[in-house]
Specification:
This protein is an alpha/beta fold. About 40% of the residues lie in helices and about 20% in strands. The protein contains 23 helices and 20 strands. It starts with a strand and ends with a helix. About 40% of the residues are buried.
Length: about 600
């Protein structure tokens, strides 16, 4: 009897199946069988598998007479599996070379019926594997309870199971339905709640345009499936005498599914109808039912767009694929001359959350953000520069902290992607912020200017911005500076999430790069600083914030130390500015 049974459903994956099979056959642990289930695809996938089978008897091919779907293929393999442990491997993904070795050691030492492990995400469009793990697991024993069952990932491919724990409980994946992993997860872990979690990323998950998950995110699925899964889980709980124990968890799951449906799926009316039917059937507590009364998205994500055709698809897709799906994506066309907006329009066809707002003429970044802010309906606001992108859990992480803290802003960390070097680092140019710990932060007159003023590394409560009439200044570079000061002098308490949730692309032709190197553009640094000075003076805050403001002015001047020719050309501008703000004479001379 082999130690592992690796279940691999096969359907139209000729581009990927070799990498998948090779990742198993080259494992450092050799005692396994590979159960390849031919689900009647139309390409040459199974022919490739048959060639491999001739060379390795550990490969077994099981054939369906007609296409039955992913779950049925897994169940077909499960029926004949001889291994002590089960691993599900989707045929467009692949394992790390030491995956089975680590799993075998964990099962043996930890005496558990299941093991959670982590994975890397591979972006097929960009042919890049993300450096960060998907889940960032914490290693150790974990008990899945009614209180936390909705918080853990339900994917079957980042877990391994003892075969007996599945077969002895007559568990199967639901057939003919999408999101089949959810039902299996809820049923399995209500019967086998104790598991062991590994930090190791042992799996590579391929994100591609025509995958099941991607199509589901675009609304290309039967919406009845989502609700049928919830019904199936409820019936399972009733049949097993677990309904009262897991009722609240089931209600949480239902609310999550409703939130998923109401913004992603194309047929909103059908989704609304099915939701109401299910809520009535389950006697869902009305105080929890926000769906019938609330159509406001949780986030409005504002993306100004101007000549970014090389980057915009990655940016928008990173927002579309967020784990928090209850959002709107406000793309502001600032009259660029390339193909950027057409790319967005193509993405918009399959996702009604994308809204395009057109300027009649180019107005700049601040104006574009304000246009988006004016149209925003979300409870919270996030701005994303169109050459940057988000980590997949960004909005979910930020939303949870907004709810937990009730602050007007939430900060988070970011990584810098150096375009010329094709290299990613932490926010090393903002060392103090990069090393700042998780937790509350109060912006005081001593530390206000010690942090980056960028708008993209924080999110905002929309009502707070509206009540205080806060906008980005228009017609000027470095527009973030004034916006930042106004916000955090009005609402100085915030929360810092110690996770890198945003990727900031640093490129040679960016606004900042051009401003620092060009004398006329560089003057905007001091124009922006003047506006901050005027605001502090008008608000009678100048005496309170004077020292930190003057320190910031010194930092602005130091920006040009590497460009002595620029500094020379700006000398008169800087001198006049320093006198205007009453900067100490001994510093002006220097």
């Amino acid at each position: 009897m082999p130690t592992f049974s690796i279940i691999v459903p096969i359907y139209n994956v000729e581009k990927y199946i070799i990498q998948c099979l090779e990742s198993v056959l080259t494992q450092t642990f050799k005692d396994f069988e590979i159960l390849c289930v031919d689900d009647c695809g139309k390409d040459k996938s199974i022919e490739i598998v048959e060639k491999y089978q001739k060379k390795d008897s550990r490969i077994k091919i099981l054939k369906h007479k007609k296409n039955r779907g992913l779950s049925a293929a897994r169940n077909t393999a499960l029926e004949v599996a001889q291994g002590k442990y089960i691993v599900c491997l989707d045929s467009d993904d692949w394992l790390e070379p030491n995956c089975l070795e680590i799993l075998n050691k964990t099962f043996t030492e930890r005496k558990t019926t299941s093991v959670f492990f982590d994975a890397y995400r591979f972006n097929e469009d960009f042919q890049e594997r993300e450096e960060k793990k998907i889940l960032n697991n914490k290693c150790g024993y974990l008990e899945i309870t009614p209180q936390n069952i909705c918080k853990c990932s339900d994917y079957s491919w980042i877990k391994a199971y003892t075969t007996d724990s599945i077969k002895n409980n007559n568990l199967k994946w639901p057939e003919g339905l999408t999101f089949e992993d959810g039902e299996f997860y809820f049923e399995y872990f209500s019967l086998n709640p104790k598991t062991y979690v590994l930090e190791d990323a042992l799996y590579n998950y391929r994100v591609r345009e025509d995958s099941i998950v991607t199509n589901a995110q675009k609304g290309k699925l039967k919406i009845e499936d989502i609700y049928q899964i919830v019904k199936n889980i409820r019936k399972f709980y009733i049949d097993r005498g677990l309904y009262e124990k897991y009722k609240c968890a089931l209600l949480q799951l239902l609310q999550l599914r409703i939130n998923t449906c109401k913004n992603i799926l194309n047929n909103y009316d059908k989704s609304l109808q099915l939701s109401r039917e299910l809520l009535e059937e389950f006697e869902y507590p009305q105080q929890f039912n926000k769906f019938n009364h609330e159509t406001t998205p949780k986030f409005s994500v504002i993306v100004p767009i101007y000549n970014v055709e090389r980057y915009i698809e990655q940016c928008i897709k990173s927002i579309q694929n967020q784990t928090l799906s209850d959002i709107e994506i406000l793309c502001v066309d600032d009259c660029g001359k390339d193909n950027s907006i057409q790319i967005v329009k193509n993405l918009q066809k399959d996702d009604k959350r994308i809204k395009i707002i057109h300027h009649k003429k180019n107005k700049g970044l601040g104006a574009a953000r304000n246009t988006g802010l004016k149209e925003a309906q979300g409870e919270f606001i996030l701005v994303v520069d169109s050459d940057d992108w988000l980590e997949r859990t960004c909005l979910q992480s930020v939303y949870e902290k907004f709810i937990e803290t009730s602050f007007n802003t939430i900060w988070f960390k970011g990584d810098i992607y150096w375009e010329d070097l094709k290299r990613q680092t932490n926010m090393c140019i903002f060392e103090h912020y990069a090393n700042y710990p998780e937790g509350n932060l109060e912006l005081t007159c001593e530390n206000l200017m010690d942090f980056p003023q960028y708008s993209w590394c924080r999110a905002y409560r929309r009502d707070f911005l509206a009540e205080n009439k806060l906008k980005w200044p228009e017609g000027i570079f470095f527009e973030d500076m004034e916006f930042y000061v106004k916000i955090f002098t009005k609402s100085p308490l915030t929360y810092v999430i110690d996770k890198s949730l945003y990727i900031y692309r640093r490129r040679g032709d960016s606004i900042i790069g051009n401003c620092i190197a060009d004398p006329e553009s560089a003057k905007h640094v001091f124009k922006a600083s003047r506006k901050v000075y005027e605001y502090l003076k008008k608000s009678k805050l100048l005496s309170k914030y004077k020292n930190t403001y003057l320190k910031y002015v010194c930092d602005c001047i130091n920006m040009f130390r590497s460009y002595p020719n620029i500094q020379t050309q700006l000398y008169s501008e800087i001198s006049e500015y320093l006198k205007e703000i009453h900067y100490p004479e001994e510093y002006i001379k220097n």
